[in-house]
TrEMBL record, chain A:
SUPFAM superfamilies: GlnB-like
Leader sequence segment: none
Highest rank taxon of the organism: Bacteria
Keywords noted in UniProt: Phosphoprotein
Organism: Thermodesulfitimonas autotrophica
GO biological process, one term: regulation of nitrogen utilization
Chain positions found as O-UMP-tyrosine: 51
Name of the protein in question: Nitrogen regulatory protein P-II family
TrEMBL record, chain B:
PANTHER family per record: AMMONIUM TRANSPORTER MEP2
Organism from which the protein derives: Thermodesulfitimonas autotrophica
Alphabetized UniProt keyword annotations: Ammonia transport, Cell membrane, Membrane, Signal, Transmembrane, Transmembrane helix, Transport
GO cellular component, one term: plasma membrane
The organism's place on the tree of life at top rank: Bacteria
Name of the protein described by the UniProt record: Ammonium transporter
Residue intervals of the Ammonium transporter AmtB-like domain: 34-432
GO molecular function: ammonium channel activity
Transmembrane regions: 33-55, 67-89, 125-146, 153-174, 186-209, 221-242, 248-273, 285-303, 309-329, 341-360, 380-402
Main location: membrane
Signal sequence interval, chain numbering: 1-23
Membrane topology per record: Multi-pass membrane protein
Family the UniProt entry places it in: Belongs to the ammonia transporter channel (TC 1.A.11.2) family.
Amino acid sequence: MKKIEAIVRPERLEAVKEALGKFGIHGMTVSQVMGCGTQKGRTEVYRGHEYSINLLPKVKIEIVLRDQEVEKVIEVIAAAARTGQAGDGKIFVCPAENAVRVRTGEQGDAAV
Amino acid sequence: MKRFLFTGLFALFLSLIPGVAWAATATVDTGDTAWVLASTALVMLMTPGLALFYGGMVRKQNVLNTIMLSFIVLGLVSVQWVLCGYSLAFGPDQGHVIGGLSWLGLKGVGLEPNADYAGTIPHQAFMAFQLMFAIITVALISGAVVERMRFPAFLAFALLWTTLVYDPLAHWVWGVGGWLRNLGALDFAGGTVVHISSGVSALVAALVLGRRRGYGAEPMLPHNLPLTVLGAALLWFGWFGFNAGSALAANGLAASAFVVTNTAAAAAALSWVLAEWLHHGKPTVLGAASGCVAGLVAITPASGFVGPLPAVVIGLVAGVICYLAVAVLKPRLGYDDALDAFGVHGVGGTWGALATGLFASKAINAAGADGLFFGNPAQLGPQAVGVVATWVFAALATFVILKVVGLFTPLRAADEEETLGLDLTQHGEEAYRGLAL
């Protein structure tokens, strides 16, 4: 099992969800997060004062998958989240030791 | 017989209602009274509008405290005004500097008109209208001290300031026998009394309190600009009561004040946005909201004395100079007037008071005076005296009041309280539960 953490633009969330749905992935955890990377923030102006905003709002999507699904899901998310501009986000893959379905007590791949 | 009996009983019933007794007298005009009461309600709405205007501009951990500083003043000054404030401001003159104490608790302030102030509306209607001005004036000052002033200290300051600064100033300018009124200084709806006094006091309060933790080193951004725009819109709306209501009658002067109020607000919104567009490359919504308020401030003293074209000039200039005050002057001098109460109200009010001496015309208001551009440069004299006197008095009195309050309770939140935010530490409440960012 693997856990995918995809950090993407908030405005691409719906496209990513739709693409994952077509691939048969419906379970996910989504959080609003702030982050910075190569996009390097932006400048905002309030009453004539300029502020550099380094942390930008992003969305983090967490999905736990069977090993064989990982590569394809990464492709699906990357394709749906991509705009081609700096700030499109990153996808991290982490090992997941186990999963437990709370309702039934199933564990491992059966619980994913 | 039955009809006769019914009519008689009805007449007896009417005679028992106090309102009907005064309505039967010839001096109260129902149209004037309706307009002034409606205006009173409009001006009342400005203070919660100000709360939203200010509330949207602070960081989210301080929005409730910022709103509270305006909202609690509605309670505090309403009671103070009835107990002593109205008497001190408008009561029988004492040495041309303050009203007497004979109207304490509104004793003698009844339902008959007081011809000295407004001959066609109940005296209590005039009192209530003036109350709303007293409320918003002290609330305006809070814009300079938000995000760091402790609530108990603000309460004490607000009570003392409104009693020791606002009430005497209102008497100087509007009270019968007040020395600025006798001097011929024109202030139709409170440019000096409301805006210069609150703006200058705000600057002094910002200096006495010191800058917020991290000011200049970390961004302190508005957390909800739609709230601010809603507040600005409510201010603009309520300002029609503020200025057009100051005619104290439903007449042509009220209509004129209404028109110039809207015109100046519109012109200043445009010029502020244009100034920042040229200066920083973007026309911002906050700029449009700030600009309209600057225009409303500037036209206030002049609103009963100038025509529409001078209103355009007053508004255009107000938008630019207030923008320069907050975008250029403030960073150069380094003071932390958090929400620019001085930059908008102090600077805009000063411009408006002087502009009244430039553009006033007896053709608009025969009870006023001509200004410089209408053949009477001498009018600039009393206007300047009013400005200087208000600056000096408000600044000194605010400094002393804050120092005295500081002897009894700390003015500033502790570092940890400021970091956590004043909503939690002063009120035990959160505006947006569960939002960490």
